[in-house]
Amino acid sequence: MNLDKVNKYIKEFEKTITKPRTNFDKSKFFVGVDLGTANIMITILDKDGKPVAGATQRSRVVKDGIVVDFMGAISIVRKLKEELEEKLGIEITEGYTAIPPGVEQGSVKAIVNVVESAGIDVKKVVDEPTAASYVLGITDGVVVDLGGGTTGISILKDGKVVFVADEPTGGTHMTLVIAGSYGVDFETAEDIKTDKKREKEVCIQITPVLQKMASIVKKYISGYDVKDIYLVGGACSFEDSEKIFAKELGLNIHKPYMPLYITPIGIALAGLKD
Q1: Do 114 and 151 fall within a single domain?
Q2: Residues 117 and 169 in one domain
Q3: Domain that holds residue 183
Q4: What CATH number does residue 180 fall under?
Q5: Is 197 found in the same domain as 115?
Q6: Helical packing angle, 171-182 and 199-221, nearest 10°
Q7: What is the rounded distance in angstroms from the CA atom of residue 145 to the CA atom of residue 236?
Q8: Do 99 and 142 lie in a common domain?
Q9: What is the reported pTM?
Q10: 158: alpha, beta or left? (left if phi > 0; alpha if psi -120 to 50)
Q11: What angle do CA 219, 221, 223 make, to 5 degrees?
């Protein structure tokens, strides 16, 4: 993985969230819809895969790949879709979405139904680790997605996913630890967790959760010839996360800039691969 190249690409995308590009071919573009446990995000890339725009909203309508508030999820996706359509002067009619490792078929249908009920025809459902690999530019290694609800582990070999596992330890558990430590409600704890000014303070509180995540990964990759671990997902955004994983696993740990954006961008990139 060329980390500098990946980071540059992510930074270009990050800029489009507040300042979307309007000078692109509006006859062909790719849309990704990511229904995450902590956030719902829509990403738009041009026909060459360059970032055009992104829109996101914190949510609790999906839990570990399972839609727990169907109407709420539709409402958020539709709202983000309409915001982007207005900003860009386009009509979004089709796109791509993704599922975490190990999700049952019934949950896949529910995710597709949410996106399509919001007015976006789903062309393809990709698995999240494969989507992440598109952005990272890798064909081998372990993609560890530290999401809002789960730790997802996917082993890639020659560009194909050969093993997946998913365990319920994620960013939500970090938030609960913070809520307990400070005696605050969940939403306040979430604000504390995402406050960059309090990152060092928060890291001390959530280190045990990150250590547990690393131990989960260690358990599943034993028996595989693994040299490189790629961290993605919002729960690994803390600056000490790589160090904790490196100490626990003794392997090469790679983490791109703003890992929260990796999978959502990769979902849209699936359009180029389709």
Answers
A1: no
A2: no
A3: 137-258
A4: 3.30.420.40
A5: no
A6: 140
A7: 8
A8: no
A9: 0.92
A10: left
A11: 100
Q: Please tell me what DSSP assigns to residue 139.
A: S
Share in percent of the chain as helix, strand, coil (round to 5) = 45, 25, 25
pLDDT tens digits, the chain, 274 residues: what are they? Answer: 889 999 999 999 999 999 999 999 999 999 999 998 888 999 999 999 999 999 999 888 887 668 899 999 999 999 999 999 999 999 999 999 998 877 777 788 999 999 999 999 999 999 888 899 999 999 999 999 998 888 889 999 998 889 988 888 888 999 999 999 999 999 999 999 999 999 999 999 999 999 999 999 999 999 899 999 999 998 999 888 999 999 999 999 999 999 999 999 999 999 998 7
Residues comprising the chain, all counted: 274
User: Count of CB atoms within 10 A of residue 95's CB?
Assistant: 27
Residue 123 sits in the same domain as residue 226: no
User: Do 54 and 91 fall into the same domain?
Assistant: yes
Say how many domains are in the chain: 2
Question: Are 254 and 157 within one domain?
Answer: yes
* 117 and 162 in a common domain: no
Burial pattern 248-261, b for ≥16 Cβ within 10 A else e, equals bbebebbbbbbbbb
Nearest to 210 by CA among 233, 180, 232, 241: 241
